[in-house]
Amino acid sequence: MSTSGMIDVLPLSPLQEGLFFQHLYHRDGPDVYVTQLVLDLSGDLDRALLRRSWDAVLTRHPHLGAAFVYEGLDRPVQILSRGVVTPWRETDLTGTGEDLDAAMTQELDADRTRRFVAAEPPLIRLLLARTGPARHRLAITSHHILMDGWSVPILVRELLTLYAAGGDPAALPPPVPYRAYLAWLAGRDTEAAATAWRAALSGVDEPTLVAAAGTPPATPRQTGTLLGAEHTEALARLARSLGVTLSDVVQSAWGVVLGALTGRDDVVFGVVTAGRPAEIAGIDELPGLFINTVPVRVRLSPQTMLSEVPARLRGQRLDLEPHEFLSLAEIQAAAGVGELFDTVVVFENYPSGELGADAGGLRLTGVHGTDATHYPLMLAVVPGDRLRLRLDHAPGQPAGDVLAALVSVLRTMTVEPDRRLGTVDPFGGQGRRLLEERNDTAHPVPQTGLTGYLEQALRRFGADVAVICGDQRLTYAELDRRSEALAGELARRGAGPERAVGLHVSRSAALVVALLAIVRSGAAYLPLDPQYPAERLRYMIDQARPVLVLTDGEPPDGAPVLHLADVAVAGRAPAPADDPASIASIIFTSGSTGAPKGVAGTRAGLLNRLAWFAELQPFTGNEALLAKSSISFIDGTVEILQTLVHGGRVVMADAATAVDMTALADLVARHEVRVLTAVPSLLLALLDEASAGPPGRLSSLRLVLSSGEPMPVELPARLAVESPDARLVNFCGCTEVSSESLFAFCDVYDRSIGTPLWNNRAYVLDAALRPVPEGVAGDLYYGGVGVGRGYMRRPGATAERFVADPFGPPGARMFRTGDRVAYRQDGKLVHLGRSDAQVKVRGVRIEPSEVEAALTRHPAVAAAAVAVRRPPGGDPLLVGYVTPATGAVPDPADLRRYVATLLPPALVPSVLAVLDRLPRTPNGKVDRRALPEPAPGTTVVSAPAGPREQVLCELFAEVLGLPAVGPADDFFGLGGHSLLATRLIARIRSALGIEVTLRSLFETPTPAGLAARLGEAGGDPLDVLLPLRSVSGRPPLFCFHPAGGFSWCYTGLLRQLPADQPVFGLQARGLTDPARVADSADEMVAEYVDRIRGMGEPGPYSLLGWSLGGQLAHAAAARLQAEGDKPGLLVMLDSYPPETLPETPPLDRPEVLRLVLREYFGMEPPVGVPLDAAAVTALLRTAGVADLSEAHVEAVARILPAASAAARTYRPPVFDGDLLFFRATGGWSGPPPDPRAWQPYVTGEIEIHELDTTHGRMTRPAELAQISAVLRPRLPGTA
């Protein structure tokens, strides 16, 4: 903006800063803070006089014509100028007839939806519409940053007064300058205010939100109601009797409604304050923005009486009134919560306007307006003989229900002021009706009991194959015989109802035999994963106290052992009592107290889950189900048993196959698997593998069951491509309720968590255990047959989570999950998050406190915190943060190894970071949201030793979501895990076109190690013809070296181009034969063309080059063409004809070597160290570049100046074809060269694409990504 006519520069008020932020943040969407005031005028109107009168108003109050700027400043300012002209538009709508209202609405909407530019004043415009004889409407559209609602009648009064006075400014007294208010603000004690707000909001750790996080603002809609005069008077009497204001009463009622709406007993919402200090005389007559939005906190103890809430609010208000000037951003910073609320209450108790007043023959007959807010719910309260309530709400908010609930609470306050909050139901029983309707799940189950149900299946399908694991196969008859014999042996050794048997068996057919035997003996199975640390296994055995442990390997300590090899394969088992209430399993989950908890699941819950599965997937014959989950999780047991009871084949993946996506996809194809269970992240990895390999490997799938993580948006669509006949089911449940309690069929439009299974119930309750209505967030509780007995020997934890079920039969219990959910209109539940610190990573439930307890056991650690972080484009990682004990220096790698001896692999943090201190909230708790993003595992990233190593470093970084990875960095030490490993293997196969196994990554998990392992198939990285990706399928792309002689710089293309695109680099001959450095471009081109032809490819040839490489590519294209070969794609990256290049003095040897280090290996040469070939070789080896000897360095030092000299003396031939050119626009000391200088040497079109980068950065990953986006569709062979 121009600074001419500037009269003042002012800071912004607190609310102005907030509105300015919203304006900038949402610059691509609608500006919801554009307000509109419409005045209905009757009488003869002098349009010119009205406009002059408005100009006089703006002259009186120059802050209404302010520009708002921030660029280059520490804080934004508003600039006041003289002579600001308000945009004024006139229109005549009298010819629209009956469509006049529609035409007016269209004009107003167009004016209101047009955004203002903050730096281009004024942020206000006027529209004058003639609507009839002597009738007009004046629309004043402005940004809320200029003025508040109190200003409206002031503005109207001044405008009419000036109009009546013929536009004479003397008709009004001089106004108070806006600067006076800002000066008053500057004198406030912000420290004292912050302290007061911090105390008032102590204990508030998270916001009170009614909309989903990240919901963009939308133009608000309005829903309103008018209370009766009698009800209004009753509220006024209540306020007087309590010694509070009507505002206190309404805010209290809003707090009660908000509690019911969010399911919380401690809520915060915003209240708009007038903000006009009494100390400034005349401020009540000044238009401008003075209001502020401050938080109000309402605690809703069930025992509190309704009448007590307003008095508490009044006390809070009086305490904080002196501090209401503080901006909301500063208040939220003091509270330590980024966002406190998303609902606001405003009392529109403004001074009366001039309705009906006469101004020089002009009368104001009506005032209309639209307010502005980015909040999804704003309650506006307009006092009067009849209290008016209006909700400005975002589309999709249940405004009608909320308004009705508010009126209901206000009525209850007047009729029963002493009623306890716990008995107030703002939504009138909607929640209870919903609970009963959505939980009608009663269904009969087999009366045989769990054992009888399994035995019936074993005998019904006797000759069919029951289990396949590698080369092992068992029929149902064999499984029946062997499991019965083992059950008999277990019974003889004390196994039976209410007793546990440990299951310490590797993934094999024997595992299924052992599992069935334990169930048939009547005992509870206790999974003891052989991969778990010995200390954890000892703890589990100590807690569960099994009568014995079944094993096929080295047994754990702490209980008698029975080796499977010592058991006869035939024998009879006694028929135990099959009490549905007895324990079927004891499965340990992560514990919030720092130790795992053993969940006792019942036989009734397991039987119900197995029987229900027949309705979901009726088996037709001996269909296969893939079992890949560990039985340490309830899903692992269920996927085996649900197959057997319905006559299917259990295709069991061994431990190695279960984490190798290639092997898993092959297993599905080989056995034509119909049913698969996996967490979403593993499914995505499996789909990645399927799409990269032979087609159709997952086409046999008919049902895919997924749980444990939020359903990714892309999963249903991607599954439909690879498995077109498969249905996708989203499960939700937990070990405490016998696996799943909720299910939903998913597609691209529906990713809900669904409805309850047979005989299960799902309750959505508020803090007082009252059912909440549709669309309202609440806590998820599970009831019904699936609810387990509790936690083994943990009565306190059991009592906390397994609570009495007030909606079930007498004695029933329900399980409090800690999940926050809400009902949709279609009856399905949607997941909204957690109410505690529990997290899930790759489907495994993790209590951070258990991991933190393990970390703090290390003597070098003083304190620890754990959080889940998702790197860009990556999977969630469990990250541990530690602070060192006095005098200690914790080593992250050592810490991971230590924790791995205490916790299962899934609970070991992928990344560990050492901090000086843990961030804390003002209340002293660890602020998990303020924990920093984990840094890459290495502080210094050394240079790769060759092109293959460079590609691997880039692929490691891509998959791990890190900015860079060095050759020596450990994949698993940087946060890699089995799913990411499979993704990396797929990317390596795609990028390099070579076969690599998961085992090779586990054995050599660094780019350098893996490159060395793969090097046998890779050839010499210094060869003239360097195969960057030697696959077949398309005509190859040949990339010509720049002056330094290497083609390694093009490895970044491999990540961007199709996996079947072969890519070869052409390198200087002197790299492999230092004595034969080419002296001319013609000599180089002749050899490179021979190498290209030597491959036997018929063309068309795609040739690409950067810098000197572009000249060489052009010359090679012309030579190939002249010798009869088919022309192809010619691509140059910032390469120019020799006559356009500036003259530069030749470099001496040290300068050449310094350039080599900097440009080709990204190393900054040490200052003051003389450089020769030996010194450079030593530096390169220190950085890990072992492929270059001193002779090679000497060769490079000769190649670079020789190639540069050749480029200047080269005379380009003419190429008969087009040129695709990528131009760097930055970094030139003068005007950049023009690519059209190639026109004399190219007969076709020159297509130019500009990149905002420098010449030296043209082959960096970001630039190559832009180049590849243009290049991909142009390559020969692209459909």
From TrEMBL:
Annotated SMART domains: PKS_PP, PKS_TE
Record-linked Gene3D superfamilies: 3.30.300.30, alpha/beta hydrolase, Chloramphenicol acetyltransferase-like domain, N-terminal domain of ligase-like, Nonribosomal peptide synthetase, condensation domain
Instruction: Keyword check for Phosphoprotein, yes or no.
Output: yes
Which Pfam families does the record match to this protein? AMP-binding, AMP-binding_C, Condensation, PP-binding, Thioesterase
- Which InterPro entries does the record associate with it? AA_adenyl_dom, AB_hydrolase_fold, ACP-like_sf, AMP-bd_C, AMP-bd_C_sf, AMP-binding_CS, AMP-dep_synth/lig_dom, ANL_N_sf
Single GO MF descriptor: phosphopantetheine binding
What GO CC annotations are associated with the protein? cytosol
Concerning SUPFAM superfamilies, the annotation shows: Acetyl-CoA synthetase-like (SSF56801), ACP-like (SSF47336), alpha/beta-Hydrolases (SSF53474), CoA-dependent acyltransferases (SSF52777)
* Keyword Phosphoprotein among record annotations: yes
Query: What's an example GO BP annotation here?
Result: monocarboxylic acid biosynthetic process
Requisite cofactors: pantetheine 4'-phosphate
- Return the annotated region ranges for Disordered: 924-943
User: What are the Carrier domain coordinates in residue numbering?
Assistant: 943-1018
Going by the UniProt record, its keywords in alphabetical order are: Phosphopantetheine, Phosphoprotein
Q: Which PANTHER family match?
A: FATTY ACID SYNTHASE, NONRIBOSOMAL PEPTIDE SYNTHETASE
> What name does UniProt use for this protein?
Amino acid adenylation domain-containing protein
* Organism (species): Micromonospora krabiensis
What lineage does UniProt assign to this protein's organism? Answer: Bacteria, Bacillati, Actinomycetota, Actinomycetes, Micromonosporales
